[in-house]
Amino acid sequence: MKTVRFGIIGCGLMGREFASAAARWIHLADAAARPEIVAVCDSAPAARAWFEERVPTVRQSVADYRELLANPEVEAVYIAVPHHLHRELYCAAIAAGKHLMGEKPFGIDRPANDAILAAVRAHPGVMVRCSSESVFYPAMQRLCGLIASGAFGRIIEVNTGFMHSSDLDPAKPINWKRMIEFNGEYGVLGDLGMHALHVPCRAGWLIRNVRAILSDIVKERPDGKGGRAPCRTWDNGTLLCETQDPRTGEPFPLTVKLQRIAPGQRNTWYTEVLGTQASARWSSTNPCLFEQLRYTPGGAQAWEQIQVGYEPAFKTITGGIFEFGFTDAIQQMWAAFLHELVHGAPASSFAGCVTPDETAKSHRLFTAALASQRDTATLPVPTA
């Protein structure tokens, strides 16, 4: 099996998740390649120490990302840093010839995203993808299979979102995601939006216009130093989009709900597609449950509930009777990245990671959404 040597820049939560997925690579039955983490970079020594102590393949540990990118042993990098650093670090990694998995939203704003995409075009031999995991749940793979086959008929409506309650407590100290200089004006849109847009983008649905309602609910938080700090990013956002299905040429409403303050939601992804021939829905609140409704002319309309077992896009040693979880989705996403790196194409349309062009679509939507909120108007979303 081919080995791809990785560096991690940003040794926080998601960097540790990648390290865990790589350590369990034996779990995959027929992966195209395996990752080996050989270098880590973070300005915080304690963050690097976690990798130094637990990942025996790490041979370089540095505070300056330039040193890691100069390491000829590193073939690919995973960069998980605050949004204001995306443009500088992503462009530098691409220019250094390192294959890149980056975190959403691929730039703090649209100009930053444009710069990253320009770097991608200037280095066509470098594979660049964006992290997004929910599509790799087996129940979501079933829903996406129905999209790919055209089983829904004419799309009536699509609802998708990502909601959690991590900022519900107003006494929670402020962090970088609540600071506009680090997270950007998008706020929750940039933080969560690509997860909700992964399937619509991959389906090829064309968002024509948007009416956005954005909410700044907790306007200040403890600063961790005994004082208070203003929260200048959006907590929640609801986007109503007029969208076109290129398969039929017909329009339909797409509602995207993104919330960091969602009472009762622990960490919920969901997708619902309603069509003239069939409908289907999935939510991570019950990740094994796939619901579908197929229409019989003149017959009753009844939702069928199916408990989906361990049926991932990339085969593993786990039996189908068992349950699939978030750490499995993380590993499946990385398997998808390495499969495409080795074979030059995803295993299937919906078993692939988010592309740079798909992040550009999200930025066009988010930029229009900010203007829609400002003008209290429905505004067009550029196609390029």
Shape field: globular
Strand content: 25-35%
CATH topology of the largest domain: Dihydrodipicolinate Reductase, domain 2
**Text of the CATH class of the largest domain:** Alpha Beta
Number of helices: 10
Helix content: 25-40%
Main beta sheet: 9 strands, mixed
**What CATH architecture of the largest domain would you give?**
2-Layer Sandwich
User: How many structural domains?
Assistant: 2
Superfamily at the CATH H level of the largest domain?
Dihydrodipicolinate Reductase, domain 2
**Alpha-carbon distance between the two ends:** 40 Å
Tell me what you see in this structure.
The chain contains ten helices and 17 strands. Helix 1 (13-23) packs across helix 9 (326-343), helix 5 packs antiparallel against helix 10 and helix 8 (188-203) crosses helix 10. Helix content is 31%, strand content 27%. It has two domains: 2-130, NAD(P)-binding Rossmann-like Domain (Rossmann fold, 3-Layer(aba) Sandwich); 134-324 and 353-375, Dihydrodipicolinate Reductase, domain 2, CATH 3.30.360. The protein is an alpha/beta fold and 384 residues long. The strands form three sheets. The protein has a nine-stranded mixed β-sheet.
What keywords describe this structure?
384 residues; alpha/beta; Rossmann fold; Dihydrodipicolinate Reductase, domain 2; nine-stranded mixed β-sheet; six-stranded parallel β-sheet; 17 strands; 27% strand
How would the blueprint of this fold be written?
Layout: E1 2-9, H1 13-23, E2 33-41, H2 45-54, E3 60-62, H3 65-69, E4 76-79, H4 86-95, E5 99-102, H5 110-122, E6 128-130, H6 138-149, E7 155-164, H7 180-183, H8 188-203, E8 206-215, E9 220-222, E10 228-230, E11 236-245, E12 250-259, E13 267-275, E14 278-283, E15 289-294, E16 304-307, H9 326-343, H10 356-375, E17 379-380
Parallel strand pairs: 1-2, 1-4, 2-3, 4-5, 5-6, 7-12
Antiparallel strand pairs: 7-13, 8-11, 8-17, 9-10, 11-12, 13-14, 14-15, 15-16
